[in-house]
Every structure is written in C-alpha cells, then in structure tokens.
Amino acid sequence: MKVPFLDLRIIDENERRELLGAIAEVFDHGRFILGPEVARLEQRIARLTHTRHAVGVNSGTDALILSLRALGIGPGDEVITTPLSFIATANAIALNGAHPVFADILDDMTLDPQSIEPLITDKTRALLPVHWAGRVCRMEEILPIARKHNLVVVEDCSQAFGAHRHGQPAGSFGACGCFSMNTMKCLASIGEAGMVVTDREDWREKLEALRYNGLINREKCHYVSHNGRLDTIQAAVIDKRLNGYEHLLAQRRDHARYYLETLQSVATIPKEDAGCRDIYYTFTLQVEHRDALKEWLEQRGIECRIQHFPLMPDQPAYRDNTRNNTRRAHELIRRMLCIPASEKVTVEQREYVAAQILKFYNSGS
Ligand SMILES: Cc1ncc(COP(=O)(O)O)c(C=O)c1O
C-alpha cells in the first residue's frame, strides 16, 4: 500500500465543481486582486478568530513580515522566537533588519515560556510564539512575560487556523495573529495566501498600506514596503473551503485519536491539553531509532517527514547567531517523525501505518 504524506490533488467531484464555480464568479466580475471575495473572507476570518479585523496578504511569510513592520520592529531590535518552525519565521524578523533570538521548546514542541526571560535584553522588542503543528502555545504564561517587559506579541498561527487554547482562538492573543493559507495548510488556497488578524483599527490601516507598497491611497507612499496583496481567486477558494473546515478538522482529529491510542506503547505523543483544541497540521511522534523507523516505513510505501529540520538556528543563514537557548529542541528534533495524518488519509491507510510502526518495534528491527 502507498501512503503519501500529503495528496494535494482536487479529485473529489463535488469539491472540484464548487471551487470551479467560485473561480468562475471571479472571472465574471474581473476584480482579480482584492476583489469582493477578499473582503468577505477577511470578515469571516476575523469573526472566527474573535478579532476585529483581518487583512488578506499573499502568504504567511508576508503576514509575519508586514505585522512586525506595522508594529515598528526594525534594525537593532531583537525578537525572541522558537527554534522549531519553518524558516519563514526567522526570515520575517531578519528581513525587517531585526535579530531573531531562539528560546527553547517544551516536550509538546511549542515555545517554552520559562526559556524566554533569560534571553531578554534591552534590545528585545517582541515575542514571536509559533503555534507549531496546530497546537496553541501556553499563551497564559507567555503574555504576562510580554507585559512585564513591555514587549509586543506576534503569533505565528500559520499551522493553527481553528486551534484554540481554553476557548480562545489562535491569533487572538497577541497584537497580530499571522496565518498561512498556502496549499499545504489545513485551511488551504490553491497556491499562496495569508492573513493577519488584529483588534486595532490603526494597525489594520497600516497593514493595508504595507500590503501594497506602503501606499495610503493611489498616490501617497507613507511606508517603505512591497506588494503582498491577496489574489481574489485564492480568497474565493479559501472562502469555499471554509464551509467544510470543521468536517476536515474532525477527520484529522479522528486520525490523531486513533494514532494516540494505537501507538502510545512505542512512541511519545503529546496529548491535547484539557479544554484546548489542536488541529494536527502534522501528527508528530517522538520515537527511539527514528531514522531506522523512517527508512522502514518508506520501504513499505509510507511517506514520512521531519518537520522542521534543521532547526532554524542551525540553518547556514543563521549559524552565526550566538544567543539562543535550545537544548531541549536539539534533543527532540532527533526523535521527531511526522506520519501521514491528513484528511485524505483513509482508515485503511492509517491502520496500515500504525501496524507497520508497531511491527518495527515489536520485531526488534
Ligand atoms: C510556522 C510557519 N510560519 C510561516 C510560514 C510561511 O507561510 P507561507 O508559506 O504561506 O509564506 C509557514 C508555512 O509554511 C509556517 O509553517
């Protein structure tokens, strides 16, 4: 049996018809950038994230770059973040001229609040927690640290649309919440897309200028920025997919529940905290003999990933970064393995994946 990690094809006839219909509507009105579907999606995303405003941008990377820029983060500033993320998180900080400083992670692979304070200096301006793999960080511990040291908080919710911590949605804790809606994400476009959410009207206005070359109207450029607007076709697709999003999350959470029950004797798997909702952008095991297991599974047609290796401070672009505190992250990255768990994975496939993992450990391979 073959089990791909992700299958991005749109082969379900109903979905195909719905999405083509939404795209045809954009063809009809012809407003291909920031058309009415963008405004409609922004309103829905703001409502769902319990925030006042949402600003559509062309990627999660741009959501982060523009949020930090809107909040005045720039040259000489330090931003404390996690070492475990897609490299866009660190790049967004560095592209604004600021310096990423890497704190540690907890066993559940989100930012360790206790590792933050020792890294704070008089240059620290912001905290950038990443709700890794769809689990919201311990914001109830992170926000008081930010308040105590007068730091702004930007959430990287790229992997966490729809996740919540004790009822509060990802994106609603900090000054800005940044989402990626690229084609691999749970809430996905058919290309690149992103969104920033915020409660503040002045930040919304600034973000709207920043997403289009810093222009506040057709003529006046108030800020140095680039073009990061959201395509209408992408917004139309995301808007349609939002209708089935709870169902999609239920399928992912069902796979997660199954794997948790079946694999807990051979793997460490962080459980969802009570009263919280993880959305399982990836399903990650922590295991002994990780590399041998990966090879064993791949020989049996099961595609696995190690997300995100290498850790950001170990990337060549950031290797000269001297201030970080990432001991636990370095231990965990050697044990992590993401197995297929998307909504496209069938019950037969997940049973096959689990059976092969158990066989690997029980046969002493
Ligand atoms: C945690 C994290 N941050 C930022 C990004 C960047 O998003 P995008 O690919 O939409 O630019 C991603 C997406 O891959 C991500 O997973």
How would you describe this protein?
With 365 residues, the chain is an alpha/beta fold. The chain has 2 domains: 13-243, 3-Layer(aba) Sandwich (Aspartate Aminotransferase, domain 2), CATH 3.40.640.10; 245-362, Aspartate Aminotransferase, domain 1, CATH 3.90.1150.10. The chain has 11 helices and 11 strands. The protein has helices at 13-29, 36-48, 60-70, 88-95, 139-148, 201-210, 232-243, 245-263, 290-299, 327-333, 347-362, and strands at residues 53-57, 78-81, 99-102, 124-128, 152-156, 164-165, 168-169, 176-180, 194-198, 283-286, 336-339. The strands form 3 sheets. The chain has a 7-stranded mixed β-sheet, sandwiched between helices. The chain has a two-stranded antiparallel ribbon with strand order 6-7. Strands 10-11 form a two-stranded antiparallel sheet. Helix 5 links the parallel strand 4 and strand 5. Helix 1 (13-29) packs antiparallel against helix 7 and helix 3 runs parallel beside helix 4. The longest helix has 19 residues, at 245-263. The radius of gyration is 21 Å and the shape is globular. The chain starts with 12 loop residues before the first helix and ends with a helix. The model has no long low-confidence stretch (mean pLDDT 97). Bound molecules: pyridoxal-5'-phosphate.
